[in-house]
Specification:
There is one protein chain. The chain is an alpha+beta fold. It has two domains: 258 residues, HIT family, subunit A (2-Layer Sandwich), CATH 3.30.428.10; 132 residues, no CATH class. It contains ten helices and 15 strands. The strands form two sheets. An eleven-stranded antiparallel beta sheet has the order 5-4-6-7-9-8-13-14-12-11-10. It has a four-stranded mixed beta sheet with strand order 1-2-3-15. The structure holds zinc ion. Zinc ion binds next to loops.
Length: 421
């Protein structure tokens, strides 16, 4: 085992990711600068555009694919609603929505032709019901045309759309294995200008917990509905510099038919060393003074050996799949992820990457999140050497996060269940 952190005489810090082997150097003398994107000229918000700022806003639900499920809030209680038809979309206000991505990474055709994948009975029934109403039929027809146009398919402009074309596109639309979870707000409540985006850290801890639960349920359902899914990748790109299509909080869930390179490497290692994650995750972070905060069953700390300065959150339960965790364990995890976002700030572009053990893997792999601050641009040096250069070392990440977190805790903006060292 190579030592994950080495400090050289001149102050250079060499990091090696203990799980993936990724090498990162932090060079001294690159002074910390503000991390957030500069918005010198925020524009006032137009009240007429309220809840209609982008295609993920709930005022424009007809621009996304037919919804699979939503979470609705009644005071202090939250409930899931599934299988709505188009005419019912505005009967309730969705706090969270789950729907297929219009342009998926792996299409229905890919799964169907490569693996014989068939839509579930629930998905088929929803498709039939959705197409049986005038608004639903118009909605799916419009989306079918967009998909056909994007492929340059003949017949996209036919009036009316050919019945076979509609049917074929509808199958893929309702049986998508690449889904999106969208949070309600585009801007924070009471926002007056367009720099006040509602990032994950601006949710309340309870809202973030529901967001996390709903995401975990979506991951579980993708495994259940597609027996050929070897892994479900879950991630959140925040702000355009981090790859987001819209500056509106959302996660993506993508089923794939391979475990992915990181998990393949980790699987070999954890087979030989079953306490791998605890030992080189939370325990090593503790010995190096990198802990940011704890809850009873989870820990947040500054990450080692990631392409960008990172915070990571681990659940301590390594024997359960994410959807087998108790409500308290999910809350412990969510509170820390929320706190990391709040401390990072909504003006910093980030990638939140989820890692977990898939159902087919009988090894102790905990649910964990890596939150990467996209504050530098990879260049030729990285491409040529596969050594990444960072400007902020893990201790500086930890220092910055903890000092902000203490202030947020004093202001009551993060969970009161956090233990901040
Ligand atoms: Zn929006």
């Amino acid at each position: 085992m190579i030592e994950p952190l080495t400090r050289l005489p001149d102050g250079t810090i060499k990091q090696v990711n203990p799980f993936t082997g990724t090498k990162v150097w932090t060079l001294p003398g690159r002074a910390a600068r503000p991390l957030g994107i500069a918005r010198p000229d925020p524009k006032p918000l137009d009240p007429a555009e309220h809840e209609r700022h982008c295609a993920f806003c709930w005022g424009r639900m007809i621009e996304t694919t037919p919804e699979i499920a939503r979470v609705v809030r009644d005071g202090s209680s939250w409930r899931e609603v599934r299988g709505l038809v188009a005419e019912q979309l505005h009967d309730t206000v969705p706090e969270l929505r789950l729907f297929p991505n219009l342009f998926e990474i792996l299409s229905y055709d890919y799964w169907h032709l490569a693996h014989g994948y068939e839509p579930t009975p629930e998905s088929l029934a929803h498709r039939t019901a959705y197409l049986s109403t005038p608004a639903g039929r118009a909605h799916v027809t419009a989306l079918a045309r967009i998909r056909m146009r994007s492929r340059g398919a003949a017949g996209a402009e036919a009036e009316p759309l050919d019945e076979d074309d509609l049917e074929r596109e509808a199958v893929g639309l309702f049986a998508g294995n690449h889904q999106v979870v969208v949070s309600r707000r585009h801007f924070v409540d009471g926002a007056t200008n367009d720099a006040q985006n509602a990032g994950a850290g601006t949710l309340t801890p309870e809202e973030h917990w529901q967001y996390t639960r709903f995401t975990i349920a979506g991951v579980r359902d993708l495994y259940r509905s597609n027996p050929h899914a070897r892994y479900v990748s879950a991630f959140q790109n925040w702000l355009r510099p981090a790859g987001a299509s819209f500056d509106h909080l959302h996660k993506q869930l993508v089923a794939i038919d391979e475990p992915g390179v990181d998990l393949e490497r980790e699987t070999e290692r954890v087979r030989a060393e079953p306490d791998l994650f605890a030992r080189w995750g939370p325990e090593y972070a503790e010995t190096q003074g990198l802990v940011v905060a704890r809850t009873p069953t989870a820990m947040a700390f500054a990450g080692i050996g990631h392409q960008y300065p990172s915070l990571v959150v681990y659940t301590s339960n390594t024997s359960c799949r994410p959807w087998e965790l108790s409500d308290d364990e999910v809350r412990d995890f969510s509170d820390l992820v929320h706190a990391c976002h709040a401390a990072t700030g909504a003006d910093v572009p980030t990638n939140e990457e989820w890692h977990h053990g898939p159902p087919s893997l009988d090894l102790p792999v905990p649910l964990r999140v890596v939150l990467k601050w996209r504050v530098s641009t990879l260049a030729g040096f990285e491409g040529g050497t596969k050594i990444y250069v960072n400007t902020i070392d893990p201790w500086a990440v930890r220092e910055r996060t903890v000092s902000r977190l203490r202030q947020l805790a004093a202001d009551g903006l993060v969970s009161d269940r956090l233990d901040i060292p």
